[in-house]
Each structure stands twice: as C-alpha cells, then as structure tokens.
Amino acid sequence: MPVQYDGILAEHHRTRTDVTLFDTCHMGRFWVTGPGAMDGIDRLLTTEVRAMQDGQCKYGFLLKEDGGILDDLITYRFNTERWLIVVNAGTLPKDRDWIRARLPDGVGFEDASTRLAKIDIQGPNTFEKVEQVLGVEVASLAYFRFKTFECGGEAFVSRTGYTGEKGVELYVDAARIVEVWGRFLKAGVKPAGLGARDTLRLEAGLPLYGHELSEYVTPVEAVMARYAMKAGPYVGSEAVRRHREEGPDRVLAGFRIEGRQSARAGQAVLSGGRCVGKVTSGSFSPTLQVVIGFAYVEPALAAAGSRVQVDTGRALLDAEIVKTPFYKAGRSG
Amino acid sequence: MIPKDAYYTKDHEWLKVNGDEATVGITDHAQEALGDITFVDLPKVGKVLKAHDSLLVVESVKAASDVYAPVAGTVSAINGALGSAPELINQSAQGDGWICKLKPFDASAVGSLMTADQYEAFLAEH
What we know:
CATH architecture of chain B: Beta Barrel
Oligomer: heterodimer
Number of helices of chain A: 7
Number of strands of chain A: 17
Number of helices of chain B: 3
Strand content of chain B: 35-45%
CATH topology of the largest domain in chain A: Gyrase A, domain 2
Largest sheet of chain A: 6 strands, mixed
Radius of gyration of chain B: 13 Å
C-alpha cells in the first residue's frame, strides 16, 4: 500500500464525501478451525467470543500476561468451529507464532494472509458501489456483521472499517483480487493510500498499533477496557483486572490545537511547565481544519476541557483535551 | 520544466534575483516530495540569516521539513497568503507559492548556487 496515489488530502476528502478503495492485503489473516477452536481463542483474546453469533465480528486485543497489548484485532465467527482473526501487518509474524504456540493440540491454524486477499471500500457511497460492482447487497448488513457471497472461491464482506465512515472490508481469494480491484477502478472508485488511512482513522478517534497501542500499554491505559471486560481467564485477564482496580498512572486522551501547526508523535505534553505526557499521533485534520491528536497524559489532566501544551521543539502549542471521536460521519465541522 | 530565471540549492530551494531583492521558495520537486502542505511557519520580517540557516519549517500531512536560506540576507517580506492557503506551494511552487524575500542579501554568493540546467542534472543524478 503506497502512502498516497494522487494526494493525501484529495484521497481523504474523497473518502469522506464519496468512496475510495484501500489495498489492505498487508494485514494478517488467520483461520482457526476445529472443535476446540472457540475454547482455544477464548483463552487468548479479550474478545467475548462465546457471546458472538455466527456472521458477527468483534474488536478485541491479544495481550501478554502482564496486560501489555500484543495487537488489536478483529475476530470473525463463521460458526463455533470456524473463526478468522484479522491482525495488523507489523505484528503479523509475532502474532502468528504467539497464537499458534498457545492453541491446544488438535485446533487447526492457518496463516491465510497470502491466500485470502483483503480490500476496504470506505465512504458514504460504499453500498451503491459494492452492489453495482459485485452484485452484493450490503446496505442491510448491520455494523460489525458479515456475509459470504459468490465470487469464485472464498468471498465475504463485513460492515467494518478504519475511517469512521460508512464502509466495508472485502475478503476474496487472492487469485481473484486483481480482477475485483480492477472492477472497482473501472466503476470510478479511486484508491486511497496509507497517508489518508492515517488521517481518517485519527479523525475517527481510532488507535493505531505502534502509536497509541503497544506491548508497554494495557487496555486500561488506552481507555479501551470496555474491549477487555471478559471475566476470563484469558492471557492477561488477571493483569487487566488488577490494573482496572488500581487505576492507571497515565491514560490516552484526544487533544485539539487551533491552527495548522501540527503536534507530532513523540513530542512532550506540558502543564505548568512540567512534562505530563507524550504525543502518540498528531496531524492537521483535513476535515476539521485544525490539528488533532492523541497523547498519554496523567489521569488528572485527561478530562475534556483540560488545557495543556505540546512542545514541538520550535514552539509551545496550546492544546485542549477533547472527547473522541474528533469526527463522526454525517456531521460537519 | 525548471524555470531558467532562478538559482537552486541541493536542498531544493530556489532564489530569484530582482535588483537588490531576492525571492525564495521551494522547488516543484520539493513540494512533490513533501506532498500536501498544511502549514508554513513563516519567518518574521527583519530576521537576519546566514547562508544555510534554517529559514522556516514547512509541514505536510506526514512530516515537518526545514527550508534553509540559500544565501545570507535579511527577511524583507513574507508571502502572507500562505498562512491560510499553504497549498499555494503545491499549486505553484515558483509562482504564487513563493515564501519570502531577502533584502539586503549576499549577491556575491549567488554564483555558488546551481543554474536551472545544473539543478536539472542534479535531480537526474539523485
């Protein structure tokens, strides 16, 4: 996936107002199958897999024993004996080894990342284009639900995405993906790159692994404990429970800076001249026309309305802690 | 096509001499590499610079990059339009997207900059 095709801003706005196509084949896709599959992944993920229905997908975490986040991922339930786990690209090899080594004997595991291709179609006109290009009706598909369709080989589509916009993620056999991609291009859907994917997810208040999330951060610090409420036991459940009770020393918060000069990942957050945190992501927001970002800050400063500063090295920028998402589809400004 | 009426640096700035004043900006190649420009941290009029001093920072969606003074001089004017429309640099790097003017400037150093032909050859090699 390139950083951009015809420009980050153009691709960003096109996703917010029309529809774009993302090549997300770099992400990891693992099949977990067999009679012990549900029990096996239930022990590894924070996801409430037992409460899921067939045709449902759910966001969750893969944790270390100490509660550190190995990855954030989406689990697809085809039935109790057939599951797909979709993980980030940078963490793919590590996740594969981690999961495979911890599944009980007899549970099937396949890294299908090269065999099963994935593209995302995102934007308000997604449903019309998917129906036009593939003849698949997706408008009635509920959020975080998926369904299979006929496309020669494995093919399914989920009502999910990473842009905060109406959209789907499409999985088809790798042998068919070039043709499918070409059909969308021919129908006038333009591709968008990694740059727009980053500004879009940031506006939508979605974390990026390696920035907001890492092995050194727990779901409690990331203020995402709602995705780790399962009683367990699962790997990391005890640490999460303890961390929730004790309370974190730092938490993730969204901030907003008036103007165009951006805060960037790694820069210090100050309050009263004292360092109180660190920026994990920051960018000019193409939709909101101000600077937005995420930072880990002391819990006392994390409430919306708190005033802090970001030290860019050249300037001190006044920032306000705000609620996320920064942007919600269907609303302007 | 690289405009013949300006001089160029290896850091992809351009400098155009007009009497006792010189106009400075970044080249089309530079704006292309930076991508959509979202902020220009314009220098203050009166700022005194040595050659290669950091003149200002240009931010694109993905990164912040220094722009250096091609020659020594004093900032005598800035392109205020860039404050609200930094995309002018993307649209017209050597026209409406000019960044600032230097007056006085070190005219004797202009000869050490690249001509358009030399810059074109430099781009081809890098």
